[in-house]
Design a protein that fits this description.
By secondary structure, the chain is an alpha/beta fold. It is built from eight helices and twelve strands. The protein has helices spanning 43-51, 74-80, 97-107, 113-123, 140-154, 170-182, 223-240, 254-260; strands at residues 5-14, 17-27, 32-36, 57-64, 67-68, 82-85, 92-96, 133-134, 158-162, 189-194, 207-212, 215-220. The strands form three sheets. It has a six-stranded mixed sheet, with helices on both faces. A four-stranded antiparallel sheet has the order 2-1-4-5, covered by helices on one side.
Length: 265
């Protein structure tokens, strides 16, 4: 059986700057994997490349359920079962959340879409948002719950959660983490990117990976997040005997992603 997501020797550059430097990652179906790392280490770039953002030069391979991704257009990757929850979800005034979810579910040929939307809305507490514009006038935590709701409705094979805890207070982190746990499925693999171990107090990942300077330098169980909490990335680098170049600026936000990425849906 193929893995949900399999990345082999992935190298990504922008001009003369190499960002990802031979990254390997395997996420089996049914597992949640967390990637942690300092700013500029390449975490969001990995998400952007997997989902088809333009402007990168790539080599190596990435596959979803055995099907190659890197040669596919953005909409093709989505139809194959890839979905991303953004660090900064965009607002789409004038397009109701229920309409977006229903049309996307019909495109994905999700059976009993209306009933599934109703059930997921209740489960993730977004009933009040269904007839609002997508993410319009929502708090940070509400936007993140809306993203999780959309993933639950659409049943992707791989869900990429790019800093799903970013900008949330303690209570919102707990609610979003509970939503992620509820989303576990033997038919889906989840890649969760985060800076902090606090969300991992409420989500138990099957594996934790640490990315530094475009590479995964260490992998382990949930205890690895505890090590980072205690000693930070500097402590881990010291233990591993590695030194890296200064961190690059963080990757672009979701709004910038949509501005300069062509879609043909």
């Amino acid at each position: 059986m193929a893995n949900a997501l399999e990345v082999r020797d992935l190298r990504v550059s922008v001009g003369d700057t190499e960002i990802l430097k031979g990254l390997d990652l395997i996420i089996p179906f049914g597992e949640i994997h967390a990637i942690m790392g300092p700013n500029g280490s390449g975490k969001s770039t990995l998400c952007h490349v997997l989902t088809g953002k333009s402007g990168y030069e790539t080599s190596g391979s990435a596959s979803l359920d055995g099907t190659s991704l890197l040669d596919k257009e953005v909409d093709e990757r989505s139809r194959l079962g890839l979905m991303q929850a953004f660090q900064y979800p965009v607002e789409v005034p004038g397009v109701e959340l229920e309409t977006l979810a229903l049309e996307a579910a019909e495109e994905r040929q999700i059976p009993d879409a209306e009933a599934k939307i109703e059930g997921a809305a209740e489960r993730f507490g977004v009933e009040a948002f269904l007839h609002r514009g997508v993410n319009h006038d929502l708090s940070g935590g509400e936007k993140k719950r809306s993203e999780i709701f959309q993933i639950a409705v659409l049943d992707p094979k791989v869900a990429l959660l790019d800093e799903i805890d970013s900008g949330l207070d303690i209570d919102a982190v707990r609610r979003v983490a509970g939503a992620v746990e509820t989303m576990r499925s033997p038919k889906m693999g989840v890649l969760m990117i985060t800076h902090y171990s606090r969300i991992l107090e409420h989500v138990t990942p099957d594996r934790v990976h640490v990315m530094i300077d475009g590479r995964i330098v260490e992998s382990g169980g949930p205890e690895l997040a505890g090590e980072l909490e205690d000693g930070g990335y500097e402590g881990l680098k010291k233990r591993l005997g590695i030194s890296v170049a200064p961190a690059r600026p963080a990757a672009k936000s979701a709004s910038e992603f949509f501005t300069d990425t062509p879609f043909d849906v």
